Amino acid sequence: MSDLTVSRHFVQAALAGAEHLGFDTGEMLREAGISPDLLRIEMARVNSDQFSLLLQIAWNRMDDEFMGMGPRRARAGTFATMCALVIDCPTLEAVYRRAYQFSRLFDPMVAMKLETDEQKVRLVTNIEGEIHDPHYFLRESILVIWHRLGCWLIGQPVELEKAEFDYPRPTHGDEYRHIFRCPLEFESDCTALTFDKRFLSAPVIRDKPEMLQFLKTSPADLLSRPDESNTFTGKIRALIGRDFSKPLPDFEWIATELHTSPQTLRRRLKQENTSFQEIKDLLRRDMAIYYLGRQELSINDIAAKVGFTEPSTFHRAFKKWTGVTPGAYREGERGNLKV
Question: Which Pfam families does this UniProt record tie to the protein (predicted)?
Fold first, then answer.
């Protein structure tokens, strides 16, 4: 079970190209187990497993890994071929340089180019030609996939120092805090990620059998399920666990478990664009959405499971998270929403 959720915005944004080209996106949603009705709730979220499946369905149905948003089609298998070429690279720098060489074989080109100076590295997006990307999904995806693929290959997070975008802050800009976990800069002269040069010499630790396993669900999983095991956010989520019916551990205990001081931990969470309170709130929200999909549980049961002694308090919190009551949300998941 995945206890992460994805904003409705990304579900709709991912299907913009398919819709533009006349594909039946309602059918794609239903095949992924997402009720089109649910998407009528402005602050709705879907389980990351469902989102990952939706991306795979769209790629296969359209035979296009750019999902109708790119300057050309990227036939299914393009990403896997690039991965087969980079798995033999000795370091992260070699990975990014070879991936760029592969990407420039296609015209028009869609790639990320490495720019280095004494201390810093920038991975700069390079998209030629016209794109149909009204919600910036293609551009966000390229940044996320190239960054997370690199992290996976070297087995450690490449900590970002800055994420830049050559467009104004979009309405879903707040979601970027949790995607990139670094300072954000909009209306920049390019779309790029900046990190410390030391990461370029990190060795690739994955092998071909691991890559074959990885490709069964990637790049969909790279977009829908970040590997947060090496972030403080992810470590805290793991320490809190999923049982909210008993008192949650306090911040001092968590800092001790992570062998750090509370002050340092607060600072690290600020660098990751979050706070202890927000981590608890979002975990509660995601668990509540997960439990609402289990029809055998009553809403009062769910309130208790996510740590609310009073159902009325749960209703208020859930409405703040999603804009609707738990009952209306459940109806949306079932496809019975009355708006």
Answer: Arabinose_bd (PF12625), HTH_18 (PF12833)
